Amino acid sequence: MATGRTHRPATRSRGIPEATVARLPLYLRALTALSERSVPTVSSEELAAAAGVNSAKLRKDFSYLGSYGTRGVGYDVEYLVYQISRELGLTQDWPVVIVGIGNLGAALANYGGFASRGFRVAALIDADPAMTGKPVAGIPVQHADALEDIVRDNGVSIGVIATPAGAAQQVCDRLVGAGVTSILNFAPTMLTVPDGVDVRKVDLSIELQILAFHEQRKAGEDAAADDDAAPAPAAVKGAAAAAAAAAAMDEADPKGTDGEAPAVMPA
Amino acid sequence: MATGRTHRPATRSRGIPEATVARLPLYLRALTALSERSVPTVSSEELAAAAGVNSAKLRKDFSYLGSYGTRGVGYDVEYLVYQISRELGLTQDWPVVIVGIGNLGAALANYGGFASRGFRVAALIDADPAMTGKPVAGIPVQHADALEDIVRDNGVSIGVIATPAGAAQQVCDRLVGAGVTSILNFAPTMLTVPDGVDVRKVDLSIELQILAFHEQRKAGEDAAADDDAAPAPAAVKGAAAAAAAAAAMDEADPKGTDGEAPAVMPA
DNA sequence: GACTGTGAAAAGTTTCACAGCT
DNA sequence: AGCTGTGAAACTTTTCACAGTC
């Protein structure tokens, strides 16, 4: 992150704000829906409504990409779809490996977003020998031993980690060692990676906890002063219990820290 | 979002920045790990490292909660765990319903974070009659017809939507109608909700697209000027294809709009 | 001496409002 | 007349750096 790698040959004017990049997929989705309905042009106001942002923000965002609109008219849907796709790097297809084919990994493999074009699921990898060869979403699971070969043979640069928390760092290290430079981490743990490797994290328990925070706020609108349920002096002990609850989320799988067969399957 | 509902009775000094709230679960996780190892106190530096942020940010974040540290010493782990848990509303337990027991919904039901305490999976709901009664993660799936009753009977205020995109808004409306005021949305679609209802969105395809953006940047270090693969004039057509890829992600399930039995379970 | 808590500066993001093109 | 593109203002978040406390 702190890499001073902003060499930029000053060709155009690069350097799109991170906040804007995070919204481009949103716009792309809205645009694609319009494209499918053969809508030829769209105004910033309409598109913004469809994407759930306000129009000033959208126009500002697009201004970082260039001037792709027409004043008095709006944006050409197809053209904008192309420009955003290109900006996001979706005009090429990215082979992706998913490591950890437990419940979540299997769901991801089946997820339309992964199976469809743009991102191609190049391989599914799991440490459990019992899984090896088993097809999930039509793709046979391969054993973790082959991880490095798979990554190299397929030129994979994006890896998805869906293992239990305990295995994530090790898997990450091996992915990176084999040449992966972008990681989407579903394991609820912090990954340490060398400079130049990107990690994005999707954390289900965190999202829920943020919701709980706001939910609590709504409930406590009047009961401002006191907690009702919290025992004041013995609190610290009760705290540990409550926290354990939140902490239990630290395992994608309730038990095993090893990459071993998750006890998740009901059998 | 534009609700001017900042009534705040000025009792203490409320109003924790959103960015801080989003990090509290991270700290909580790191703290709980320390608690389990019976570490009594921790410095901002150590905790920050464990949570993957810098120490100044962490101290600033904690300063919004109050002064829970001791200068020259650090923070009492148990105490801080309690304070953060309380702040997040995790000292009470939240009944949650998951709607849409396809691949993703099943994975969520099995996910440690949902099944563990703090958040209790009160019910699993699916529109497919074939699913009704089937146990997933030990909980029998109930039919969508009963949604309103389930929400009311269990006092559910948090709902998780894991349906295909096409069903999400309708499910959302029904949840909200029945009294749910916080929604975690996994369907890749924008939800419209009345004021006072919170929506958080987890979108797998968006995260991948953001990774692709950065990945592309790394690759294109020298090839600054031209795209190599992009056909310039015929581009707009190729664009549509690439975009279709991204758009295909708009369905949580590749095919069926119904919540048919997921291929997730190996058995 | 070690470490927190916090003002103040810097950086990043959003919103406003309007000039400028079609 | 309608709508984009963008400077400038407002707001939020991060970082700095150090006074204050143990």
From TrEMBL, chains A, B:
Q: Which Pfam families does UniProt cross-reference here?
A: CoA_binding, Put_DNA-bind_N
Residues covered by the CoA-binding domain: 89-190
Superkingdom of origin: Bacteria
Q: Which SUPFAM superfamilies match?
A: NAD(P)-binding Rossmann-fold domains, Winged helix' DNA-binding domain
Residues that coordinate or bind NAD(+): 100-105
**Where is this protein localized, as stated in its record?**
Cytoplasm
Q: What does this protein do?
A: Modulates transcription in response to changes in cellular NADH/NAD(+) redox state.
Per the record, the similarity remark reads:
Belongs to the transcriptional regulatory Rex family.
Q: How does it assemble?
A: Homodimer.
Q: What is this protein called?
A: Redox-sensing transcriptional repressor Rex
Organism per entry: Streptomyces chilikensis
Identify the gene encoding this protein: rex
